[in-house]
Amino acid sequence: MPPRLLITGSRTWTDRAVIRDALRAWWDSTGRDPEAILVSGKCPKGADKICEEVWAHNGLTLELHPAKWRTPDGKQDMSAGYTRNKAMVDTQPDHIIAFIMDKSGGASHCLRYAKGKGIPFTLYEDSTSTT
Fold first, then answer.
1. Ordered alpha helix ranges (H), the chain
2. Which InterPro entries match (predicted)?
């Protein structure tokens, strides 16, 4: 089974270099497995978007989990992001990298849920790293 990396991050994240370096470091740790998979929530801006662009640029596989913000009857589902986060974590990735600005609620939720499942993680807050 190929290694799987889940990323989560703030919509306001803009530091492309930190993301590029973090993804490269994780990919290097897999022995540069060409089948490595990036699991992402497909937010159209911020960390998700940047991670997806960097990953795709290197010809690697994306597994996208966009939130379903509208119910079948057209109502807005305010918990869709949290539901999506749980679904991504429940795919049992090997590692999670979180890029969190200003204590982003959605990305912080995803990281907390992953930590509760015992998934190893790396956290970048406002461009600084902790593990």
1. 16-29, 47-57, 80-89, 105-116
2. YAcAr
